[in-house]
Fold each of these.
Amino acid sequence: MGIADLKQIVEALLIASPEPLTDARFRACLKDEATNIPLADIISELETDYTKSRRAFEIKKVASGFQIVTKSEFEPYIKGLFSKAGKLRLSQAALETLAIVSYRQPVTKNDIEAIRGVSSDSSLRTLLDRKLLEIRGRDEGPGRALLYRTSTEFLQYFGLNTVKDLPKLREVEDILSEEQDELL
Amino acid sequence: MGIADLKQIVEALLIASPEPLTDARFRACLKDEATNIPLADIISELETDYTKSRRAFEIKKVASGFQIVTKSEFEPYIKGLFSKAGKLRLSQAALETLAIVSYRQPVTKNDIEAIRGVSSDSSLRTLLDRKLLEIRGRDEGPGRALLYRTSTEFLQYFGLNTVKDLPKLREVEDILSEEQDELL
Amino acid sequence: MDKPLRVDLEMFEGPLDLLLFLIKRDELNIYDIPIAKITRDFLVYVGMAKELKLHSAGDFVLMAATLMKIKARMLLPQDPDGDEEIEDPRTELINMLLEYKRYKEAAVTFEELERSERPHYYHIPAPWTAEEEDQTAILEDVKLYDIMLTFQYLLKNYEEPLTHHVAVEEVTLSEQAGYLSSLLQTKGKISFLNLLERFESRLIVVVTFLAILEMLRSRQVKVKQSKLFDDLLISRGAEFGNR
């Protein structure tokens, strides 16, 4: 197998791989058509191609392998892909916080942190910034803590009319506990 | 801004975008440097480039946008990237459930089960896990049941541009006349 | 039985699928299904299901019951005067079969699409790390289902400490009966589904349901339901208030 074919295979792998491509993984994909050419050599051939043809992407070597990334000069445009108007992208921490507020609202920061077991300041801030949560009133208790609840934008995003329309825990269990159907 | 520059920007966006690039999203990314050239025109220029330079990938029109996919001939190699011999195929039950949701959406679990005549919890769960379906709001009826509909991932998975691209569901009369023919 | 049954019930997606198979196998006219014969064949398969650990077995049994009901209705004498056209008892079943068949066919189309899309792999971009995102894993895009899963997951891990704070709920039948009476006193009618939404735990729901049954027996309440599995409407009964 010539380097031209190997170049194509490596390119396909780079495009399809959900994580950086390592030499070991590359060899595992080749199967019978083993080659002695190191992955790094094929990569550098590809890099030359990309520079020559003025591609908007390049190959980046990260600790674990190689991956295709856009050139940094295009960052100002790419930002637009991930702007607020786009799809909801949240960290695990923010998602957890959002889930607790959705089902327990109105809720204080303390309540959230009691369930998550970790400080939730920064995820609360992110969710407020993205207008998924809002602050509404204060707790009756001694601390008079701020109460958080989901916003109208949150409901709209998920196509819900009111908070009551969220899937109930009972319904959640129904969906999650298939397989346990009794047998005859 | 010339088409050469636009081509590079579009390429960068295609490489960076986790979902199909739509014309609207493309324009949102351009900001001040607006252009009248339709995204589709720039895409077709890029496609010509990729064919000429024998790239291992191509551009696919899917879910009302464009996305980079590997060419089918590289499947045997790409398979090796994923632990379970390539992609997991959907079961017959999941396919039936998906068919009902896609033609009838939005639809409740009851509607699905009434048509299939069999409990569909487990296929619903599979389809939700694989993000091919999503929960969207509640039925207006007395039970206020959860409503299901197909997702963008559904369109991607089946390579469809919109739900309208689905082949028309056969009419009962057609099925019947075929049945009669078979009997004769 | 005229043909050997060498087919496994697990091959079928459900009772409708099995019926379609029997119709095709015996080249039956779907508009004029010999109900006695098909019921007999169907029951043989369901008999096999008892040995199989088939989790949709309940749906097969339900269909068997439906078939037997249709069979019984077909035996009833027709209206002798003939002034009213009596609907064929099989009509509903035929409609169900045809409707199911449409989607079963559509499923084949989806399977073909799946196969033709299989060799293409979408480019998966490296995670985008904008400066303001300090968080670790950024979820691609969030669906309502993710919110449900996350809350359920959190709740599972949290259940332990929670039980330390909250005393075990003790709820008795007479307490719930008293609660229902007071609600009926002010409202007149209660929807069962709305009632359920007030209760957090399964235990309370169960006890409340038992209380309703008890009150129904002693005619303190009346319960109406427009169709099977519909909401229950609870109202005051003849003996309401007399305990």
Note: Chain C touches chain A at residues 49-50, 53-58, 61, 121-124, 126, 128, 130, 133-142, 144, 146-152, 154-155, 158, 161, 197 (CB under 8 Å).
Amino acid sequence: MSLVDHEQHSPEPTDGMTALGISLDVFEGPFDLLVTLILNEDIDLLEVHLAEIVLTYVERLEARGELDLEAATEFLVLIAALLELKSRLMLPGEEMDGLDLEPQEAVEELLARMLDYRRYRSAAEALHELLAAEQGYRFRSAPLPPELRRVALDAAGKAYEPSLLADAIGGLLRTPPKVDTSHLNRVTVSLERRLAHVRELLTTRRSFSFDEAVAGADRMTQAVTLFALLELYKGGELTWKQSEPFGPIQIQAQEAAR
Amino acid sequence: MNPLARQVVAMLFNSSQPVAEAELSEALGCGETEVSQAVEEVEQALVEGQLGIVLRRVAGGYALASDPETEPAVRRLLAKPRTPPLSQAQAECLAIAAYLRRVSRPEIARIRGVNSESPMATLEERGLIEECGRSRFGAIQYRTTPLFQKLFGLESLDSLPELSEFEPDAEEQQELREKLLRAGEQRVAQ
Amino acid sequence: MNPLARQVVAMLFNSSQPVAEAELSEALGCGETEVSQAVEEVEQALVEGQLGIVLRRVAGGYALASDPETEPAVRRLLAKPRTPPLSQAQAECLAIAAYLRRVSRPEIARIRGVNSESPMATLEERGLIEECGRSRFGAIQYRTTPLFQKLFGLESLDSLPELSEFEPDAEEQQELREKLLRAGEQRVAQ
């Protein structure tokens, strides 16, 4: 049995029990058909493992982490109907006494439910016919003509402040200030500050390694420091050397330039 | 057509919803008797086979509609049917909602014996049913909309045929009962 | 009315756009002469003061409309005199049209620095601006309407608020226009 209601004209099910995906492949259809099939032994309800359905459902519920109360109730209603049906079928007549239900009563109750469903199924057929008979009556669906969508001139009163026009044109007359993009890419490392830092080292230490210059700094600061060194090298304030690729860089103050 | 009737036609022509007599009366600034007379005059002038447009009493009011005899030509022009047909599941859900007036999805599932989330979602999307509060157990309840009445040509939900008309006949009931009993006996015999 | 004319009425009734004679002819499966005759029959039956609905020959074909004499009643029933707040874009377009007296869409786009089709269309639909001829470059020009003055409580366009607060020199519209265009170009250039 599939608890999925296969609707040809509807969009993909997105939520709820339709996502349950139990496929017992023995039944799909409304209630009285199910009952009839089971009673006619086309489907053996005794072979349908209801516990498995419940387990699958609970697992799915856990995985989803939230409870769709509506879908859960629908599921409970259906599983309860199946359980009730199955228990009646499993119990031989004599043992039905324990349930305080005579076989006759059980039959009447099942019958009542089947008849109830049949009434609505017939009503649905009547609705189909009603709709078909009405297909020739088309109702107009056009927007109101523009003159009816706006305020009539005689009825119009003051609704807006003229100052809003002055504000709007005033805003257009101004060239807006440069767009502040600092929030987009917040520059926390300033080249000037790194320049000052390196110059400080050059003055106090005369010679130092790149690692010392960027001790404890993040990648951005390291990059900007390198840029500051390039800048000072270009200006002739320092010289530097690296004896091997990826080896330590040693920086030396350039006396002559100072 | 006298002026009052002409104004009724114009109002119905421009309205996308059926218009109740009280609304006509208010817009025209005249009593219900005069409105009734005007509506009757419109109804007689716009009888089928006269002008291509007819007056319909639907969803508690009046609406203009094109005459069914013109449907083939209109369909060729617009290249689409008025309303897409309903699936069996949708029609059943709609029937239950229409007859019970308000109903929750679990109730529908109980009657139909299958999960009805998908047809209900489609009906809601098509504007044929709408939410109308919660039941005392907290389930969302649904009812049919005025659009439902309009599309199904119903003046009100009371114009639906009585549910008892769909009662399976005695013979059919007896047959079902016997089948159920027989099946029960077979089970017991097993 | 004969069947062809009835079908024409029904087709126009159901179409929200004007329908061309060729479309009518195709949907009816008959020649243009017969369609012309049918349309003429409809026009005579739906003349003003007859049925509350009239036939209009408009650009693009034929359309049904309610008789102008019925407008007050239709308005009482359906018109919702809404004056929703203006968006910034709408306020800007409206201000430009009001202070410059006449303006084309391309000019508005240059001043605002963005395409302004949508706010202009809304303003036109709400009856706040209207077309008023073409510029010497052939662009449609717009001006504010008497309804605009009423809704802003203005006796005339000369009672618009002074701009001295923003631009002491911009007294003349031509000067204002040039300043606005310059500011707009600078904004775009940024």
Note: Confidence is low (pLDDT under 50) at residues 1-28, 94-98 of chain A.
Amino acid sequence: MEKEVLLMKGNEAIALAAIRYGVDGYFGYPITPQSEILETLTLEKPWETTGMVVLQAESEVASINMVYGGAGTGKKVMTSSSSPGMSLMQEGVSYIAGAELPCLLVNVMRGGPGLGTIQPSQADYFQSVKGGGHGDYRVITLAPNSVQEMADFVKLGFDLAFKYRNPALILSDGVIGQMMEKIVLPEQVKRRTDEEVVKQCPWAATGHTKDRKPNWITSLELSPEEMEKNNIRFQEKYKEIEKNEVLYEEIQCEDADYLIVAFGSMARIGSKAIEIAREQGIKVGLLRPITLWPFPKDIISEYADKVKGMLSLEINAGQMVEDVRLTVNGRIPVEHFGRLGGIVPDPDKVVEALKAKIIQ
Amino acid sequence: MEKEVLLMKGNEAIALAAIRYGVDGYFGYPITPQSEILETLTLEKPWETTGMVVLQAESEVASINMVYGGAGTGKKVMTSSSSPGMSLMQEGVSYIAGAELPCLLVNVMRGGPGLGTIQPSQADYFQSVKGGGHGDYRVITLAPNSVQEMADFVKLGFDLAFKYRNPALILSDGVIGQMMEKIVLPEQVKRRTDEEVVKQCPWAATGHTKDRKPNWITSLELSPEEMEKNNIRFQEKYKEIEKNEVLYEEIQCEDADYLIVAFGSMARIGSKAIEIAREQGIKVGLLRPITLWPFPKDIISEYADKVKGMLSLEINAGQMVEDVRLTVNGRIPVEHFGRLGGIVPDPDKVVEALKAKIIQ
Amino acid sequence: MAKIRGTIVVNTERCKGCNLCVVACPVHIITLQKEVNRKGYNYAQLINEEACIGCASCATVCPDGCIEVYKIKMDK
Amino acid sequence: MAKIRGTIVVNTERCKGCNLCVVACPVHIITLQKEVNRKGYNYAQLINEEACIGCASCATVCPDGCIEVYKIKMDK
Amino acid sequence: MKEEIIIAGFGGQGVLSMGKILAYSGLMDGKEVTWMPAYGPEQRGGTANVTVIVSDEKISSPILSTYDIAIILNQPSLEKFESKVKPGGILIYDGYGIINPPTRKDIGVYCIDAMDEATEMKNTKAFNMIVLGGLLKIKPMVAIESVLKGLKKTLPVRHHHLIPMNEQAIIRGGEIIRKQ
Amino acid sequence: MKEEIIIAGFGGQGVLSMGKILAYSGLMDGKEVTWMPAYGPEQRGGTANVTVIVSDEKISSPILSTYDIAIILNQPSLEKFESKVKPGGILIYDGYGIINPPTRKDIGVYCIDAMDEATEMKNTKAFNMIVLGGLLKIKPMVAIESVLKGLKKTLPVRHHHLIPMNEQAIIRGGEIIRKQ
Amino acid sequence: MTKEEIISQGTLAYKKPTLLNDTQMHYCPGCSHGVVHKLVAEVIEEMGMEDKALGISPVGCAVFIYKYIDIDWEEAAHGRAPALATAMKRLWNDRLVFTYQGDGDLACIGTGETIHALNRGENITIIFINNAIYGMTGGQMAPTTLMGMKTSTSPFGRDAKLHGYPLHITEIAATLEGTAYVSRQSVESVAAIRKAKKAIRKAFDYSMAGKGSNLVEIVSTCNSGWKMSPEKANEWMKENMFDYYPKGDLKDIGAE
Amino acid sequence: MTKEEIISQGTLAYKKPTLLNDTQMHYCPGCSHGVVHKLVAEVIEEMGMEDKALGISPVGCAVFIYKYIDIDWEEAAHGRAPALATAMKRLWNDRLVFTYQGDGDLACIGTGETIHALNRGENITIIFINNAIYGMTGGQMAPTTLMGMKTSTSPFGRDAKLHGYPLHITEIAATLEGTAYVSRQSVESVAAIRKAKKAIRKAFDYSMAGKGSNLVEIVSTCNSGWKMSPEKANEWMKENMFDYYPKGDLKDIGAE
Ligand SMILES: Cc1ncc(C[n+]2csc(CCOP(=O)(O)OP(=O)(O)O)c2C)c(N)n1
Ligand SMILES: Cc1ncc(C[n+]2csc(CCOP(=O)(O)OP(=O)(O)O)c2C)c(N)n1
Ligand code: SF4
Ligand code: SF4
Ligand code: SF4
Ligand code: SF4
Ligand code: SF4
Ligand code: SF4
Ligand SMILES: [Mg+2]
Ligand SMILES: [Mg+2]
């Protein structure tokens, strides 16, 4: 089966990649457009092969707290949901960040607010990167733009999560989750044994052995002085991540006069748009943030000195555009273009917006 | 009792003001440092006087959904909580915004992330003004800096909420909630009768009478075209609010060379800090956003052309500073100073930070 | 003795061809049409006008409320 | 017959003066001290060394685990 | 080469799997493909549709608002998608269940009585393949061998004996499709 | 005039209400006041403290890190707050329960045996008022009449007969406070 | 006598309630939801409460019930309908407040809201459509899914070791002091439908009389989720569901 | 014989378990939590599971239990301990996984997690401290607060019309198919404490034997919240709580 090119949905890719990466546990609750993740897992029965635990929880609140529990024991655990379900998880995410635990979250976004629509959206950008929960915390946020990346970012997400003991999030949407395209699945990795987990995660609650102090997984600290120390530690960690882990893709940026900034499914629309624009003689490039947090500030800042304007392309009312503006800090015009409520914009319309808002 | 000056906690002031303003229902769950709101209400027994409903819900998730239910009937309903509880409410808040319902939320912030600490904090700024829940929505966010304002903003919050059919939030913290100071309570207003509610809120679910179509309170719209229309309507409403409802206070700004921007309890520290700084010959003013959303962009933008730098003073790791920067857009340096984890900074230290980060 | 005669009117565009009325009819006089309606469903129809006793079983079980039943007492 | 003698050691700094051991002692030989410990609590003390039968009731009910009980069988 | 195709019909007609076979065939042919269903509860008992793109180059958006080819299997879908075929494009429909046939003159309109044919072949499962055969006749975007290779990959081994029958259906589809 | 005061002791000693009476007295005197408790579960059975500010001008922060006056009613609070009195400030403590008395020389240290006195007066509820009386003797930041007026406002009418007793306790406090 | 004569000269023996409007319902052919919708509409009509009824729709297949029954509605967040109902009834005492919820909504994510609203004795009615599956999201396992039953998230059958046991939330409701009337019914036959309607009527009556909270479970089919024809689904329900979920009144304080 | 002689020559008849460390507990004097902590520590010691026990602390007064019993702990979000426990036990089958929760945590905000974890038959134990009040946040009403009982949010006494009825979550637990052992105990006397310890031991044993989920309720006092002396609180508990919450085993599948 090795290196075989398959055709599958983004959601299925996540499920299969999780099994192959040796994930220990998945806990989730059905919601469109991502229920195939849980469905694929139950169909694959990994508990009979790798020993992975798969459980349909009673709610998203329970799911995220199962993840919290499992993560605290050093196991590789994950959940997935879509927008309304992610909102319910925000307290739990804040706890996980506060207790400094590694885990993987997946949000296959749909249109909001409220029950909204089940069509694709990118309107949970703020929630994901600014912290939808309470307190100063950050979630490492990865934005795949293909089925292949849906699979690949399972490993990437967990690796970063464990490196920094911090939750990681795959922020996808209905387009990437529901579409089928080509994919090569990663090879099956052996799940860690309990002994390996104990060894790799000396901080985890795995049973108190005499050679160390009891481990406490907690986000609680009633002394403000101590709590401030914790927060300073978090902030330093976040700075480290911002320094080391930024990922992005540059498409035809070298000679660009203008830049489109877009992530996930919108980056695909964007790449079509730059084709069209270049046919019309407009030199435009595409900068695709792969990590939304840490945000690719340095490279965008560099381009702010090179290009004449930037267009932030998002399926929302303008969210990432704030981070682009904060980076550009007034040097060149930065505008937003997007559609709302589940409508994915046409590449032509993107080019029109570019002309109207940036070039004129 | 009229115009009598009393001494009470900010939390108590909210409760008493709610009764006097003729609020129809309060639904909440205990959490430090705001449990006095519910406690004061149960002690006052307004159900025997004004007819106000007061109910201790089984959770914050239930609370916000009770508010959703009540708001959908056109009644004036509210809830209160503190940071972890507010995180649990984010799905509900998104629904309320998506269904375009008026209601009042109160968050008496404590230090996070996670269970954190019960000490004062302002680290839920992002959650409040960028939308902690999913989708593109906004919550009108009021930041009181005194016990008097805790009481006054009950009316202000409800008035704005009903004017725009949008949730409003009083974003306070442990300092303002727990401290006692002077206050003059508003006068008792009569609660609206059911008939008045029906008349004032023709959109509400009050019982379908033959003279109109049935009312549907919903945030659901599966057609992306229709959902986009809804979202465009929301965005237009938000623009209206941004145009009409900005509130702020300027303290010694006329001749200022530098500006401190601070809200809520930090604005009080800030006002002390400008006293100290002015004693040292530094001409600094304080700009206090009263509405955090809509953010006072115009006035800050004006000052960006007048002063040499701004310091955003917050009990968090730097959140509002992003909105200040977005407004200033690179014209002058904008820095952040704050303490974390529940520690309230000294005014002296603020002056030091001002010198180190802005003036040098 | 009085005999009861009944008949039904099926809202064929509303019908989803679920067949539940067919099963419910005590005298087995409803079937689904070969033709489909605009929604693509084979809708229900009465095949024996004479035999209907107007018992309304079909209409009662119809999930989509597609059937109206009329009846009349006939003196034989 | 063998008589049992017992005694208790109270961790007076840990004691919170809740009085539960006082109530639990079947022979009523514990009281709270007038003095307070560093935490401000009137701590428990044994007032009749002779009478203690080492039954451990006091220690069992002590919520803070402040009492150790020793006993010895004495041949009369 | 790049073909942007919409397939639309009732939920039960195998619209999604027809799209899947087409996409898999493209894959076997070494092409880039995307398959994007319209998903969700409004599909329940109602119409279903899927967008398939087969291309020599990397595909940007899997969601489209206009199409090169529309395969239409019921009246509501015809109403929804007729106008969305690009000028010069192709619309293929099955006569069964279409009360008002397409009227556009600026596109190539084809009719295929696949439903009737499948009934005649006493194999309603062949319906899909007949339509596909019709499509490939008019737009041979993938080789028939690739379709069969794709089927082999996707069908469980115990169903491999059905492949010759499917081949037949494809060929039959090519025979019966006709310009309107 | 501006006095920044911390009152600290055990939970049961009425620390919070002593602060409240002081704050209310300030209010009656037409002053600006704030009262800010240290709140939360760590107070449970442990120490409690409250910051009271009485001032002629608007008060900025109700939370402080140093104080003009500290009223200390147990050993842990002494350890916590002795160092936080501003040089030249005042520390008043009740000898009962203080094992190691304060040692700072740059502040005015006063001792008041209010606990003993209250026991003697057979009125443990007077404890608060005795301490307050001691404070007002040394720093007459509000008039005793204002204290009584404040009490009248805050006490339910059925307890108004206790006011003379409270007045006595205040006066007694002024008598027994002594420089260490 | 011709059909036309019977129609013109005879009496109307059955017609869908007018409160159930002419909008085509989005349900799959043969779905139980439709029958229960008719019953709810009929009862409200019979009570003359068209202008006093406030319904709360769930997140589940019945999410759009508001489009079909012409009263005022609120559409709740998933599982939270009883919380909405609590507030609505307390704020509008003379209104008929009821929720309409599926098993996933009510017995899974909404367990807390369900139990607490019932135990507080809110004067509301919960209509509970137990089809042992998540219909709307495509047939996933519900807490009420039977042992061994195959769903899209228990594709090899529900297994106690992996998934635990079917939850009898209606039995729990009957033990709560706050409930007045708790009943389990079904709608697969004319007789069953009649009984179900009576139960709904009683629950609504008790709500308005302030007797406490009321729950009427309707054991239902989801032929799409179960992957059966509507007919087969009814048969399967009778053969399998009624053992797990026996029909009848579980509690009736009026009957005490 | 002097005290010193008895100590040096006699035997140690009682000593707090060493697993309960020397850190001063933050509880109010006389709080039941302390006694139950001792029992939990003793049972873990006796089972020799010090290195295999994984505890989950609640949000409530016992939030800091991790500071006192020297095993590995996770501190859950309010009400969610059973969700954490579910994952921990499924991921670490040979560990002793238990939660320690208050009535507000378990029977109010965590109702859903409690019922579903128990009904799934997770091989865990829930130790449930029912003191009929929210201790930590200052004595607010809990679902288990007795009728007429005054709390800071029912200052005129719990009233069914306003607040509904006390919730018997332990009785509900006993009806769930997933539970193996469900018991209600108390710790106000030596005899009661012994029984409570046995119940905890049985629950832990069943968890490890994979028999299903286990719940041990300890009817407790919160003298601070109740505004009574510890002694009075014990008396009040005996006189008032035991009627509402009768003690004994509610379910024991081993005994069947
Ligand atoms: C918070 C949240 N989680 C999950 C969903 C997705 N969802 C929609 S309906 C549903 C289940 C519906 O099942 P049920 O309540 O049994 O109703 P049915 O469709 O079977 O009538 C789920 C999980 C959602 N909309 N919101
Ligand atoms: C989400 C959330 N809501 C509310 C709180 C506040 N809170 C802390 S403890 C508690 C109740 C504790 O009561 P109980 O569980 O009975 O434990 P006890 O203190 O009585 O032992 C509450 C409501 C919180 N921390 N988090
Ligand atoms: S009314 Fe009765 S007899 Fe007539 S068609 Fe309907 S079910 Fe059959
Ligand atoms: S029961 Fe109704 S929907 Fe079903 S076939 Fe009969 S008429 Fe049509
Ligand atoms: S051991 Fe028994 S007799 Fe001795 S002090 Fe304790 S309770 Fe009393
Ligand atoms: S029971 Fe323990 S804490 Fe209470 S008084 Fe006795 S020794 Fe002290
Ligand atoms: S999915 Fe099931 S519950 Fe939903 S409409 Fe179809 S049959 Fe009914
Ligand atoms: S508040 Fe109550 S439960 Fe909490 S420690 Fe004090 S007595 Fe115990
Ligand atoms: Mg269902
Ligand atoms: Mg409790």
Note: The longest strand of chain C covers residues 2-10.
